[in-house]
Amino acid sequence: MAVLAGLVAATVGLVRARAAEAQARAEAAKTRQVTDFVVDLFEVSDPGRARGQTITAREILDTAARRLEHGLAASPDVRAAMLATIADVYGKLGLYRQAEPLAAAALRTREQALPGSPELADSLDQVGALDAELGRVDAALAQHDAALALRESATETDALAIARSLRLRGDALMKATRYREAVEVFRDVEARLAAAGRVESVEFARTTTRLAEAYN
Questions:
Q1: 8-31 pLDDT, tens per residue?
Q2: Residue 126: is it exposed, middle or buried by C-beta count within 10 angstroms (0-12/13-18/19+)?
Q3: How far is 111 from 124, CA to CA, in rounded Å?
Q4: Quick one: CA dihedral 127, 133, 136, 141, positive or negative?
Q5: Which burial class, exposed, middle or buried, applies to 106 when counting CB atoms under 10 A from its CB (0-12, 13-18, 19+)?
């Protein structure tokens, strides 16, 4: 019985190790594809390719969006990661309407290829944040609630990811000047992060900043 138990434990350990190794290889391949795509975009600023013209960051982003729109050959999860990345950069530049179709495409891809995944929750939050910026607060709240439900139902919950979904929900409430509700959300985030021992995290600092803005 002891030998049999030992063999079972060893087999389970081996299977888990191989699964982890396969996942690590897949993630590494995905990262390489995304990196190669981004590097190729920025090579357009090389004088030999740009022919002396000044290439702006916006033009690089537009090139990336066109390539993705016309079906870059990549696995669904890699393509979704690229779409989400370019959408995120557009958003950081304040180009929310340009970001919107890319984020929506990433969301659709992940709904089909990665149901129930953290990446799907990330896309829900991304689309929600863009909805809030574009004045669609009710839609934003629905997206963040869906992301939060996914994160909280996961086998292994991520306190920081849950906090981020909640904070983004508070941000959407701020856009609608619903400050009292936003304060309650931000205080909840702080309490959750404190309970998880993450008071020194960037997410805690961001939430504290947003809480102060809500009080003002």
A1: 555 555 555 555 566 566 566 656
A2: buried
A3: 10
A4: positive
A5: buried
pTM, rounded to two decimals: 0.76
pLDDT (tens digit per residue) in 37-86: 665 555 554 544 444 455 577 777 777 777 776 655 568 888 898 899 88
DSSP the chain: -HHHHHHHHHHHHHHHHHHHHHHHHHHHHHHHHHHHHHHHHHGGGSHHHHTT----HHHHHHHHHHHHHT--SS-HHHHHHHHHHHHHHHHHTT-HHHHHHHHHHHHHHHHHHSTT-HHHHHHHHHHHHHHHHTT-HHHHHHHHHHHHHHHHHSSS--HHHHHHHHHHHHHHHHHTT-HHHHHHHHHHHHHHHHHTT-TTSHHHHHHHHHHHHHH-
Contacting residues for 7 by C-beta, under 8 A, at least 6 apart: none
Q: Which two tokens stand for residue 172?
A: 């959407």
* Residues 176 and 186: beta-carbon distance below 8 Å: no
Backbone angles phi, psi at 56, to 5 degrees: -90, 160
